[in-house]
Amino acid sequence: HRAAGVLTERDIVALSSARADPDQITLEAAMHAPVKTVRPGERLHDAVKAMEQAHIRRLVVVDERLQVCGLLTHHEVARGLEGDYVAYLRELVDLQGREMENPAQAIDERLLLANILRSVNGTAVLAADLEFRIAYATPAVDRVLGLSATGVGGLDIRQALQEVGWSRAEAALREVAVAQRPRHYMVATPRGELDLQLSVLFDAQFRAQGYLVLAQKA
Fold first, then answer.
1. pTM, two decimal places
2. Which of 23, 39, 104, 160 has the maximal Cβ count within 10 Å?
3. Cis (ω within 30 of 0) for the bond into 190?
4. Contact at 8 Å (CB) between 91 and 109?
5. Distance between CA atoms of 159 and 152, rounded to whole angstroms?
6. What pLDDT, on the 0 to 100 scale, is given for residue 96?
7. Is the peptide bond before 40 cis (omega within 30 degrees of 0)?
8. How far apart are the C-alpha atoms of 63 and 70, rounded to whole Å?
9. In 3D, which of 155, 157, 217 has the Cα closest to residue 186?
10. To 10 degrees, what angle do helices 109-119 and 44-54 make?
């Protein structure tokens, strides 16, 4: 099938709120169209930039025959970087609080990774160590979660999420730690509904290193 349109979880929530009859409404009437497409060989940076410019959170991936072969979302971008992110987590934190000794080495993998994470438009990223201390936050946490990106460092991520309005934050983090895989939550808060994904950060030897929270406004 060609990429004529896309039906998202957000569309379903809106239809439910409007009390639409699923037996009567068609996909064509409910879906977003037209959709923006990309090719598998395009660079990730360009795809993220395209989403930011179009103010969208999903791109349909099509092959040379314009057949759908995948879907790229903000969550997929950030989740795909988790493995690399762990390796640089502590260095990123150090980098934020000190001047680099060798300015010639300023453009390295750590800075590139930090900027890619920041460029995921509309997605707030929080990372914490195994003691639940927040070690890194992208600027979007101000807009999405109402937290200060420069003031959350060292805070307990469980308490920070509870202050946002998620009373089950601590229980959800325990669930993720037991499941050892990402979990998805739709959370109603005083600032509106949030789309949250929690996961455990693992190193190359699959040892747990901390927690990652991706947050978007629903």
1. 0.55
2. 160
3. no
4. no
5. 11
6. 47
7. no
8. 9
9. 217
10. 30
- Give yes or no for a contact between 209 and 157, defined as CB atoms under 8 angstroms apart: no
Distances (CA, A) of 153 to 89, 146, 165, 174: 13, 15, 19, 21
Q: Which range, 10-14, 75-79, 167-171, is most confident? A: 167-171
DSSP designation for 3 = -
DSSP conformational letter for 199: E
Task: Give backbone dihedrals phi and psi of 2, rounded to 5 degrees, phi first.
Answer: -80, 160
**How many other CB atoms sit within 10 Å of the CB of residue 10?**
16
Pair type for strands 37-38 and 58-62:
parallel
User: Are the C-beta atoms of residues 140 and 125 closer than 8 Å to each other?
Assistant: yes
Terminal C-alpha separation, the chain: 27
> What is the pLDDT, as a whole number, of residue 80?
57
